[in-house]
Design goal:
The complex is a heterodimer of chains A (about 300) and B (about 325). Chain A has about 300 residues and is an all-alpha fold. Helix content of chain A is about 75%, strand content about 0%. Chain B has 2 domains: about 50 residues; about 230 residues, MetI-like (MetI-like fold), CATH 1.10.3720.10. Chain B is built from 13 helices and 2 strands, in the order αααββαααααααααα. Chain B starts with 13 loop residues before the first helix and ends with a helix. The chains are: A mainly alpha (about 300), B mainly alpha (about 325).
């Protein structure tokens, strides 16, 4: 009997030990994230002021700012979102609602799964060879936006498909029974009901695109740029201009990379400031995505 | 999906059908034909969107093959694979990819040594041990780790991890593969833990109950029953982690140094394939020069390495798939 009790005590002890190990391993990840944030705040917060956000980069660390790079990031994201969202949602709808089970659909599905595993810098090489030199788009906002759109396309497609899959079949059958065509079912039922899930995926994809550095360096984005692209709106007719699409650009992560690789400690502090701005943007986008997902789950009861 | 019971629909008689199909004017049928055309056009557009992903793959493969073919017209495959020096921008240039491959493999190995054990333990802990409330907080928090931009991790590796490691190993240089690899490993923990946990939670409860009935405790059940049953999904997460580590660019470009170095010692600085591409792209390279072509040759090597691991993962997943 005592032998039996001894074995039970031993096994309970094993469980307890693993419980502790598990908590420690989890903390390694969480604590690293915490240390990284604190480290960035300590180094970068003193640099964060209005002047930092409204100045161009400079040879003098104290006068340097991130104006051209955050404007660049914003413009690139506009191009990326306007390309990847319609394309990805349309592709997701086709694969989930229209595609027949045949070799061609299979090919597209395997292809999307593989694209998600391709390193981001490879997209940069592709854009350099194809967009910059074959299509002669140059190193412009347009090229940068398209490069990142290609990169996040698989994420948007997968998110759209998952959101569509959660809609019960009965909704589709009900609409067909009332005489809807396929597109009417998609347009009036499936798209509105899946918008929450799709939005979550799109936001996460865009937050990934904002932090991407390597593909944009590969296509030749500038690391030092002291002017802004031409404004999209003007007071003279025709009021709207798309010249900014052809402008050279820099983005926040490239600006940070440029500063972090300098030996001068003052520039490293600038890098921390730019990193702080970057991480606040990406983390709040992720928080927004989590919030949307949570509210959508709560609201919808089929 | 539930099976829908077959329903007998009332069928119109021939007379009723004829009455229904005799329109007073032609417009509804014309409208129907128009809407049919519209439906077909929309379907074609959606198909085109889906095909764009295939076009991207074709673009990647096409450009890599096209640009590197001119490179391999200058440099023999034998030199590329066996020369121990990679100095394409020096004179005389040497084109041996080996130093970049070892740099990539060493940083990847360090990252995996951190991410695979920790990620697996976290997955087992979250799936089998943690109470539900803790799991629902920890899982999204850990996933934030993969949301941090990699350039920020690079900063962290160079400005925080390297100085800390230098206190433990005083001979460690500022730029080294160890700190870059370790930070990269922490970055990919959520790829391992999240996917593995999903796979483990998909293991049917009856398997665990069987183990408990035989007197196993939680940890033995986890390691001997749940982990093997979920192995297919766990391997998929490992492969994803390997792909990420091989293709990761900014952390190694910032913290591991930019000098090609044929070594297997993680304490030394060395350039990876990705770091080399970044370094060359930062400079002003004329289109068509040998330096320009060399980044595509490096890119092909990187692409093939990730492809090999993805195919390997596909085979392993099939081999270990358990169906319940």
């Amino acid at each position: 009997m005592s032998e039996f009790k001894r074995i039970i005590a031993k096994r309970k002890r094993q469980d307890l030990i693993f419980n502790v190990v598990g908590i420690i391993c989890t903390l390694v990840g969480i604590l690293t994230l915490g240390i990284l944030l604190v480290d960035l705040v300590i180094d970068g917060l003193p640099r964060l002021n209005l002047g930092f956000l409204t100045s161009f980069p400079s040879r003098f660390a104290e006068r340097a700012g991130i104006l051209s790079s955050w404007v660049g990031t914003l413009l690139i994201m506009i191009v990326t979102a306007c390309t990847a969202v319609p394309l990805g949602v349309a592709a997701g709808i086709y694969l989930e609602e229209y595609a027949r089970k045949n070799w061609f659909t299979n090919l597209i599905e395997i292809n999307i799964a593989n694209l998600a595993g391709v390193p981001s810098i490879i997209y940069g090489l592709m854009a350099l060879g194809l967009l910059v030199y074959q299509f002669r788009l140059g190193t412009s906002v347009l090229t940068g936006g398209l490069t990142l759109a290609f990169l996040i396309l698989p994420i948007v497609i997968v998110a759209t498909r998952e959101a569509l899959r959660t809609i019960p079949q009965g909704i589709r059958e009900g609409a067909y029974a009332l005489g809807s065509t396929k597109w009417q079912v998609v347009r009036h039922h499936l798209l509105p009901y899946s918008i929450g899930g799709t939005m979550t995926g799109v936001i996460i994809a865009l937050s990934r695109a904002i932090g991407e550095t390597a593909p944009l360096i590969t296509i030749g984005a500038l690391t030092f740029i002291a002017f802004l692209p031409p404004p999209p709106l003007s007071t003279q007719p025709p009021f709207v201009s798309f010249d900014w699409l052809w402008s050279p650009f820099s983005v926040l992560p490239i600006q940070m990379f440029n500063w972090v690789s300098r030996p001068d400690q003052a520039f490293v502090l600038n890098a921390a400031g730019a990193g702080l701005v970057l991480i606040v943007i990406t983390l709040s986008l992720n928080a927004a995505a989590i919030l949307i997902r949570y509210r959508v789950r709560k609201r919808i009861k089929w | 999906m539930k099976d829908i019971p077959a329903v007998e629909f009332p069928v119109a008689t021939a007379g009723e059908q004829a009455a229904f199909q005799q329109p007073s004017d032609r417009s509804p049928s014309a409208r129907r034909r128009l809407s049919h055309v519209k439906e077909r056009v929309i379907e074609a557009l959606l198909l085109l969107a889906a095909f764009s992903s295939v076009a991207i793959t074709l673009g990647i493969v096409g450009i890599l093959v096209y640009e590197s073919s001119t490179f391999f017209a200058h440099v023999s495959l034998r030199e590329f694979l066996t020369d121990p020096l990679w100095t394409p921008l020096f004179s005389p240039p040497r084109f041996g990819i080996l130093p970049l491959i070892t740099g990539t493999l060493v940083t990847t190995a360090v990252a995996l040594a951190v991410a695979l054990p920790i990620g697996t333990v976290v997955a087992i802990y979250l799936s089998e041990f943690a109470p539900q409330t803790i799991r629902e907080i920890i899982k999204p928090a850990l996933e934030l780790l993969s949301a941090v931009p990699t350039v920020v991790y690079g900063y962290f590796a160079l400005q925080f991890m390297s100085p800390v490691l230098q206190k433990l190993l005083p001979s460690l240089p500022t730029f080294n593969m160890l700190s870059a690899g370790m930070v990269m490993g922490i970055m990919i923990i959520p790829y391992v833990s999240s996917l593995s946990e999903d796979a483990m939670r998909a293991v049917p409860m009856s398997l665990r109950e069987g183990a408990y009935a035989l007197g196993a405790n939680r940890i033995i059940t986890s390691v001997r029953v749940v982990y093997p049953a979920a192995l297919s999904g766990v391997i998929a997460s490992y492969i994803l982690a390997i792909s990420r580590a091989i293709g990761e660019t900014m952390i190694v470009a910032i913290a591991a140094g930019m000098q090609p170095n044929l070594t297997l010692d993680p304490r030394e600085p060395a350039a990876t394939i990705t770091a080399f591409i970044v370094q060359v792209s930062l400079g002003d390279l004329p289109h068509g020069s040998i330096g320009y072509q060399s980044i595509f040759a490096a890119g092909v090597t990187l692409f093939l390495m990730t492809l090999v691991f993805n195919i390997l993962g596909y085979i392993l997943r099939k081999r270990f798939r358990e169906v319940y």
